[in-house]
């Protein structure tokens, strides 16, 4: 046993998973874990799915884009579910048909950009239905499964830096993500006793398809200037934090929205 491992053993005999504390950081053991990731067909959800698969998880990739899901499935195995999250009843049925779920990443999201005075009701409803209502529908269906399984589990909801700051033309989006933060707290508040841990992450801009739509160069430059680290987040930055929150390593983190914004909130 090396020196660090010996010290770790004296200080912390075991962590909740029963494993000894390793000198080198790992995300924890996802082998045998069945993890549902929504919006797994592209962008951040796809990146998270790849990281989970690399760490041994059986990824259940959910998206409305079947072609994208097939390509993810070909690369990482696991299983996939084609589902439109705007349809609450279909979503509940799709989740009921799945087997055991140990972890959930409520990631799917959309945006619609307009100044407040011009926001159309249909756009507001659309953004809220996926970014907020679907997080509730999927979260409730999966949490019920976890309770019935008697296994507990971990859940990460995708929030955004936009949940705590106003961004021009982002009325529906900012509102939906602020709701995700409170939904995360409510889930944590009521599900903790069932050994279900719930947190959210709040990335700054990530240049996915959504990022490119919301942040064309003329808007991206002033946003970048407000981030003390002078850079946007990469999909892997988000994946690393999500895997940490899903794993035993974050055992006492519960009900939090962890920003991932390069210091944007300091301004
Ligand atoms: N890109 C950013 O700058 C950024 C920043 C902070 C938070 N986020 C959040 O991260 C999450 C992922 O965003 P992204 O940038 O990867 O976006 P993206 O557009 O690249 O991917 C979103 C995925 O969700 C799927 N999806 C959309 N509507 C769906 C529906 N009704 N049913 C099922 N699947 C649906 C899409 O098909 C797509 O595969 C979202 O919740 C987003 O709000 C993004």
Keywords:
disordered N terminus, Rossmann fold, 7-stranded parallel β-sheet, globular, 9 helices, 44% helix, alpha/beta
Description:
By secondary structure, this protein is an alpha/beta fold. The protein has a single domain, classed as Rossmann fold, CATH 3.40.50.720. Helices cover 44% and strands 14% of the residues. It is built from nine helices and seven strands. The chain has helices at 3-11, 43-54, 66-76, 88-96, 121-149, 171-191, 209-214, 217-225, 235-246; strands at residues 34-38, 58-63, 79-82, 103-106, 153-158, 196-203, 257-260. Strands 3-2-1-4-5-6-7 form a seven-stranded parallel sheet, with helices on both faces. The longest helix is centred in the middle third of the chain and has 29 residues, at 121-149. The radius of gyration is 19 Å and the shape is globular. The model is unreliable at 3-25 (pLDDT under 50).
Brief rundown of the structure:
With 267 residues, the chain is α/β, with parallel strands linked by helices.
The total of beta strands comes to: 7
Oligomer, anyone? single chain
**Ligands, ions, cofactors:** nicotinamide-adenine-dinucleotide
N to C succession of SSEs:
HEHEHEHEHEHEHHHE
Tally of structural domains:
1
| CATH class designation | Alpha Beta
Strand order of the largest sheet: 3-2-1-4-5-6-7
What is the end-to-end distance? 46 Å
β-strand amount: 5-15%
Q: Please state the average pLDDT score.
A: 91
CATH architecture type: 3-Layer(aba) Sandwich
- The named CATH superfamily: NAD(P)-binding Rossmann-like Domain
List the uncertain runs.
3-25
Gross morphology: globular
Helix content: 40-55%
User: What is the gyration radius calculated from CA atoms?
Assistant: 19 Å
């Amino acid at each position: 046993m090396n020196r660090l491992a010996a010290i770790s053993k004296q200080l912390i005999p075991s962590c909740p998973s029963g494993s000894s504390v390793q000198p080198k950081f790992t995300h924890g053991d996802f082998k045998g874990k069945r993890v549902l990731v929504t919006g797994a067909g592209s962008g951040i959800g796809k990146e998270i799915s790849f990281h989970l698969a690399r760490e041994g998880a059986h990824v259940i990739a959910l998206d409305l884009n079947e072609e994208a899901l097939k390509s993810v499935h070909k690369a990482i195995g696991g299983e996939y579910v084609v589902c439109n999250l705007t349809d609450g009843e279909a979503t509940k049925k799709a989740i009921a048909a799945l087997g055991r779920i140990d972890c959930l990443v409520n990631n799917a999201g959309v945006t619609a950009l307009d100044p407040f005075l011009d926001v159309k009701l249909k756009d507001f409803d659309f953004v809220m239905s996926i970014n907020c209502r679907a997080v509730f529908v999927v979260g409730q269906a999966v949490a019920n499964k976890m309770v019935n399984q008697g296994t507990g589990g971990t859940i990460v909801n995708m929030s955004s830096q936009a949940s705590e700051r106003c961004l021009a033309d982002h009325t529906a989006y900012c509102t939906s993500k602020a709701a995700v933060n409170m939904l995360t707290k409510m889930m944590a508040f009521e599900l903790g006793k069932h050994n279900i841990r719930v947190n959210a992450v709040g990335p700054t801009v990530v240049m996915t398809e959504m990022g490119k739509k919301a942040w064309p160069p003329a808007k991206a430059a002033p946003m970048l200037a407000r981030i003390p680290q002078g850079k946007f987040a990469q999909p892997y930055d988000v994946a690393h934090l999500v895997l940490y929150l899903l794993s035993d390593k974050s055992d006492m983190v519960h009900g939090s929205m962890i920003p991932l914004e390069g210091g944007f909130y300091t301004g």
